[in-house]
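Below is how a single chain appears once it has passed through the pipeline. First comes the sequence as given, then the structure the pipeline wrote out for it. We keep one example in the README because the format questions we get most often are answered faster by looking than by reading.
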Amino acid sequence: MCLGDGLVNSRSDRAPDFWQRMSMAALQGVLRLATRRRYAGLEHIPRDGAVIIVANHVSKVDSLVIAGFMGAAGRWPRFLAKAPLFDVPLLGRFLLRMRQIPVNRGGADAGRVLVVAAEALRAGDVVVIYPEGGTPKPWEDKMRRKGKTGAARLLLSTGAPIVPVASWGPQNILDPETGRLRLRLRTPVTVVAGPPLPISYEDGSGADLHAVTEEIMRALRRLASEAEDSCEPAMRHGLMRR
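Resulting structure:
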């Protein structure tokens, strides 16, 4: 694997503080009540050190589900989140306090988010990125969405391992197409992590970045299919609706 210009730390020097630990505990309590979770592949999440988590994006609430999964793995996740969220009173301050990373899409400093993410990785943190960018549109094939090259660029600049994580079920809590919120207890949700991707390439050319991104997307599609299959028995028994 190409390690890039800046090697990552083997351990994080910024462990969650009291408020972050309390927030994670509260989130786990909510998830236990609201979802019936199936976790697989927790052993693929490194116990310490930098890691790039690439995740599929099925709903605006899947970040909470993935955060709970990362908490179960003993790690504090730092998400790349839309900048407008940080402008919301109280919520924005909370997100910054929780060390989340704002993404200003289309702005003059849009590329700076990868600089901030790379700094987090060099400090030994966990950075979660959605290669798909946003949640699926009604006309999109959810299993054939194209990815953006941000994760591949982070790999090149830091050498941090890339671990794919797929969730299925959050879209039954908050529908990404209609925005409809379905509040019911114990909605089946699956989160699956795969092993670190054995990605290598010779240089940082655009062709290589797109090839790496496609390899990432193939891994996510496989995991998403596995996660969906695990939810099917619950769907067939009427425990959730599509």
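The beta strands are 35-40, 51-55, 77-82, 101-103, 126-129, 162-168, 187-193.

See the next section for the split statistics.
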